[in-house]
Amino acid sequence: MGPGESTVGASAWATLQAEIERCVRCPLHATRQRVVVYRGSASPLVLFVGEAPGAAEDAAGRPFVGRAGQRLDRAVAALGLSAAEYGMLNLIKCRPPANRYSPIAAARCRPFLDRQLELLRPPIVVPLGRHALRAFDPSAPPISQAAGRPRRVGGTTLFPLIHPAAVRSHATRERWEHDLERFGRWLAARRWTRRPSQRI
Ligand code: URA
Fold first, then answer.
1. CATH tag, 7-193
2. Which of 88, 110, 143, 175 is deepest in the core (most CB within 10 A)?
3. Ligand 1 test: best mutation among 47, 57, 65, most atoms within 8 Å of CB?
4. Percent of the chain having pLDDT more than 70?
């Protein structure tokens, strides 16, 4: 069963997934190998949102399975998130040639993202990098300022982080680790205060 808490939710998810996989709304369908829809829990506490699939994701049909994904998986393990507690997806579902971000593809994919969010209903969204942040909060400051701090936007709780693929230098690695620690502390405090049956 795919994401969706009930049979109805699961079948809505299956319908949505099939629709995304058939999509020809933008030119990226012509160059993709696989459509990359989602990986993770049917009911994630934390939803990580990236930009677009890279070569490894395009080949596998799953988000965040390449180098950036390995860094993200290590972060998920460090945060102590169980498999039932997180999910990963991208703004854009097909690989842009040369991994260049495509605003047109993002706009065409947006209704899919919105429907995924409606079905997954994640209490916490972690936009990775500036494009994902802007997709949730168009008036957000640059990612270098916003990363590592929670923000509420229209009923959604965001905790932006720099994109794991941007972690290339010593300075960006320190920033990534620092922001992850902040996220871990913030998350632990929220989990501590919620009732067992209550979603954050
Ligand atoms: N970068 C992203 O933004 N998403 C992926 O799935 C892989 C790399």
1. 3.40.470.10
2. 88
3. 57
4. 92
